[in-house]
Amino acid sequence: MNSISARLAIIYFCVALIVAISQTLINFWSDLHRTKLEINTDITSILNTASSPASQAIFDVNEINAREILQGLSTYPYVVEGLIIDDLGLEFAKFSRHNHPESHSEWISKLIFPAVHQTLSKDLYNETFDMTMGTLIVTVDYDIALNPFYSRMSSLLISSFFRTILVFTIIFAVTYFYITKPLIYMVKTLRKQPNDSNVELKTPNHHKTSEIGILVKEINKSFKQQSEAQNKLTQLNLELENRVKERTIELEKANLHLEMLATVDPLTNISNRRDLFSKASEKFKLFKRYKRPLSVIMLDIDNFKSINDTYGHKIGDKAIVSCVNSCLSCLRETDILGRIGGEEFAIILPESDENQTLGIAERIRKQVPKSEVLLGYNISMTVSMGTYTLTDNIDSIVDAIDIADKALYQAKVNGRNRVEIGR
User: What is the reaction catalyzed (predicted)?
Assistant: First the structure.
């Protein structure tokens, strides 16, 4: 019942039903009023017609004639009982229906006639002798009297209902084939190719100039415009994607360069002070958590100022790079070498105890003077170092580096070109 035809048919059905009910109610009250008037007129006519013969029958003491009069009343189905009483109050003749059928409409009749079974009487007056001969009593069943009325109303209701059903069916069929079916075709076509803006709808038959035909033309026009816009958008997206790729590459390069500037010493390409302390802090956290050995070496080039003063800063920079290369040749991949500043360096040694750290420091001390760069310039360069292997009571990596730095100072005091162990 979601289709337009079904909804329109339901609307028309409801309207037709309301109209049918309204017409039925109007006919009901009109026919009811007419029927009540006819029944009352007939009963009055019965009493008036039968009173004179009944009076004469009493006067003639002719019971047979009186019973025939009452039998004549039986031709009216709603007269269920008739009684003639003489002037002495004695029963003269009687007629009664003992087996009239039960009715299921009596409750309705009670709404129309509160006294469904009503007894009416008329005095039997003899005009010749100017005297009352008796009484004619008639009992009327209004429910039976209304049966023809009920039959007419039932037929009217049934015919109205079937007329409404017929209207519903006709409207449903017309709207379905003329409106809903073309729309269903359009919807199915669009659903089969939901993303194809090149699809073209065909104008349904009998709708070349109707609203549906105009709608189809506008949809096709919209599809064409959408296709053109989609092509332009695709081209723009490709251009935008290429530009984004180019900008992304440039941005990655810039970020990489910034990261290097932020973490790498530009002269030696090893960690700068900031990056060294960041990595050292991570190693310190692992040391605290897993209780694995961790050591620190502080290194300083001996008498570096005299090298700068003698050979110049350019050769001095080469001497620093040479020192770094000598250190790297003695370190493991897991070890961290960083430049603290000037000619001072720090080395973080994970998984190295005091003896291992001292061994690494001695190898570096012996390796530095052997650099080909230094030998090429006939430069005699040595280094001093201070080491420290962390213990559980150390609070931070900064404290550990400070202890190693004090040991480095002691190496300087004790004559340079040596390694001292911090405690």
Answer: 2 GTP = 3',3'-c-di-GMP + 2 diphosphate
Answer whether residue 286 shows pLDDT above 70. yes
Please state, in angstroms and rounded to a whole number, the distance separating the CA atoms of residues 151 and 92: 37
pLDDT at 248: 84
**Cβ atoms of residues 417 and 382 within 8 Å:** yes
> What per-residue confidence (pLDDT) applies to 145?
73
Q: Which residue has the tokens 């009992």?
A: 139
What pLDDT is stored for residue 205 in this prediction?
63
Share of the chain above pLDDT 70, in %: 87
Mean pLDDT of the 66-90 span: 84
